[in-house]
Amino acid sequence: MTILTALVLLCAPQFSQAAIDDQIVTQEIYKFEKVEFDIEIQSEFENPFDSRDIQLDMMIKTPSGEELVLPCYFDRRLNAGSLWKARFAPAETGKYLYHFRVTVRGDVTDNSGDKSFICKDSSNDGFLRTNNYWTLKFDSGKLFRGIGENICWDPRGGDDGKFTYEYLLPKVSSYGANFMRVWMHQGSLPKEWTLPRTRRNEQASSAPEPVNRFDEILDLAKENGIYVMLAMDVHGMYMEESSWARQAFNSGNGGPAKTPAEFFSLEESRIKYKNKLRYFVARWGYSTNIAFWEFFNEVDNAAFTRSPQDSILIPLDQVTRWHDVMSTYLKSIDPYKHLVTTSVSHREIPGMWDLDNMDMNQKHIYKRTTRMRPETIEAVYKHQKPFAIGEFGYEWNWNLNFSTMAVEKVYDYKRGLWYGMFTPTPVLPMSWWWEFFDDRGITPYFKGVREINDQMLEAGNGSFDTISVSGNVVETYAVKCGENYYVYVLNDSNCDVKTDIILDHLTDQNTPYAVKTYIPEIFIYNELGDTKVERGRMTVKDIYLRSKDEMVLIISRAEKGAM
């Protein structure tokens, strides 16, 4: 080495690789749309999914001056350092300031330099919020009622392979469905929280890269205008001995809990689950198509044993306390404040439905569809918050031959949707057995339900007033939306019926109304003529229904001079 070279090296500034190197992946940034960032960091860690070891946060200042903290998620290790990602959905237009912060074992070790981006307006309505017992509302103010079904997984080994999300979502959307319930697939999560592989769960998804499958499902949901209730855990993981033996939280697999009860009670188990929630928010929280985070599918089936029947396996106060802790934590780390729920099969967990950070209560009802309305109404007014039937069906037993009860199942499916339409719930009851019903050509039935739903929302701007209504033999349910009345009439008897439909205790005296019928099965309207309110009563005469038939009466203010 020459003396000159040595002097040049000695005097040159010494640059070291930046501890945080970030860049925006998204080119054009729009309100309520995903903005993605790649962040390379040099920090050391043992477990990138344990926030006690390391966490990366995006520190954001909005155009209005609000300060947000967005969790980021680990993507992969690099030759030098690691790659993390941030996914953000801006809720305002204008200039945002941001930087990234690394925290290692509780101490802030690095902050990136301040940067900015400009967000433009978009047509996206934003995130869903609670509105009243009947409706949800987007950030834009647009009203919403969920109409859809459970589509909880892709085809598995032995299933008919056609019922993928790529097949079902465009189809149900084309007929007006706007909602679905999904179970988080284990293949979409890092191994930190997944079951050890078995032949069954290796075949559970047809996606070539299952770790990205939920990303794909959310993209499909967005493309098709479908909003998602995401069940993040399934009761069987914790309840059944064979499943618990393979559970990542099980101490036998390196987890913290010796028993399913300790999953709920141990602080170490809770920390591990909070890390899981942090990952969900970091990776998928940006999506306006996630309507609800749902903690458990049927948590009562984790708390109670099947044999002996309904013995308590996990103390119920622990289950309630767990939901209180987790819902509070989830709200604290989710900058979008998604709605939060959990579900039970049929047994209420004391205190759980009254927790402050649970936005909607939920139950599943099988083999008793006629009980959905009274049980929903009771739950709504007892607990003073929205309520939904997350699953319903004529039969729950997987081992039976459904072809022998196909007529009964289809009939039950249809009336369940209409019971929901005339009940205070923001999400109409969601049927199970999505493959069965689509295979029998029932998916188009959503069209009529959505059509009436949209009319109700437009007529009343979200207001629903239950009206006293009666008929001879038939079932009747009525609501007033704005100035219009809507009546569902079902002939559940085994004979044909001709009856008057009577609406009582009305206040708009001597007002003329025009009546038309709608037949959901064939999407046909028929003008019936006029009627009026006299002494608080309105009568629609001579409604004829064959056995098991149904119709909707649409009663609207008549033009001036009518009658």
Enumerate how many helices there are, as a single number: 14
Shape: globular
Helix content: 10-25%
CATH class of the largest domain: Alpha Beta
Tally of individual domains: 3
Strand content: 25-35%
Strand order of the largest sheet: 20-21-22-27-24-25-26-23
Give the topology, please.
Elements: H1 3-11, E1 20-24, E2 35-41, E3 54-61, E4 67-71, E5 73-77, E6 82-88, E7 94-104, E8 107-111, E9 115-119, E10 128-130, E11 136-138, E12 143-144, E13 148-150, H2 165-174, E14 179-183, H3 199-202, H4 213-223, E15 227-234, H5 236-239, H6 241-244, H7 260-265, H8 267-284, E16 290-297, H9 300-303, H10 316-333, E17 339-341, E18 361-366, H11 372-383, E19 387-393, H12 406-421, H13 434-439, H14 446-460, E20 465-470, E21 475-481, E22 484-490, E23 497-504, E24 512-519, E25 524-534, E26 537-545, E27 550-557
Parallel strand pairs: 13-14, 14-15, 15-16, 16-17, 18-19
Antiparallel strand pairs: 1-2, 2-6, 3-4, 3-7, 5-6, 7-8, 7-9, 10-11, 11-12, 20-21, 20-23, 21-22, 22-27, 23-26, 24-25, 24-27, 25-26
Explain what the structure shows.
By secondary structure, the chain is an alpha+beta fold. The chain folds into three domains: 100 residues, Immunoglobulins (Immunoglobulin-like, Sandwich); 333 residues, Glycosidases (TIM Barrel), CATH 3.20.20.80; 93 residues, Sandwich (Immunoglobulin-like), CATH 2.60.40. It is 24% helix and 30% strand. An eight-stranded antiparallel beta barrel has the order 20-21-22-27-24-25-26-23. Strands 3, 4, 7, 8 and 9 form a five-stranded antiparallel sheet that branches. The radius of gyration is 27 Å and the shape is globular. The termini are far apart. The N terminus is likely disordered.
